[in-house]
Design brief:
InterPro entries: TTHA1013/TTHA0281-like (IPR035069). By secondary structure, the chain is of the alpha+beta class. Helix content is 42%, strand content 11%.
């Protein structure tokens, strides 16, 4: 999978928003739960969230340029069941193919989706 800026911007990171005491200037502070040091603030919660998202964009530019590891939420790669409809004959063919590769149907579909998302398989629409 190509992990570029758009990839990381599409991840649903948790953003924590808290109030800032009046003694400290008031308003709100926001930060990413999984990204140390990326913070923003504002007079309102929405301003603080917009500010932290802007800071995250700057963080991504630097981290990608320097080839730094960018943390991802732990639940990002958690398996999730899906329900798809497909002709029974195709399912049988997939199961046979998966067995040849010593994997399951889910394993085969995961391998194929990884290849597609990494750009190893290109799909061209028919004219």
């Amino acid at each position: 999978m190509i992990k570029n800026k758009e990839y990381y911007q599409a991840i649903d990171y948790d953003i924590i928003v808290s109030t800032v005491s009046e003694d400290d200037g008031g308003g709100y502070m926001a930060y990413y739960k999984n990204i140390d040091g990326v913070m923003g603030d504002g007079k309102t919660e929405s301003e603080a969230v917009a500010d932290v998202k802007n800071a995250f964009d700057c963080y991504l530019d630097v981290a990608l340029k320097n080839k730094d590891a960018i943390p991802e939420p732990e639940n990002l790669n958690k398996a999730k069941k899906i329900n798809i409809s497909m002709a029974a004959s195709k399912i049988k063919s997939l199961d046979i193919y998966a067995k040849r590769l010593n994997t399951t149907r889910s394993g085969l579909l995961t391998m194929l989706s990884d290849k597609l998302l990494n750009g190893d398989i290109e799909l061209h629409p028919k004219p």
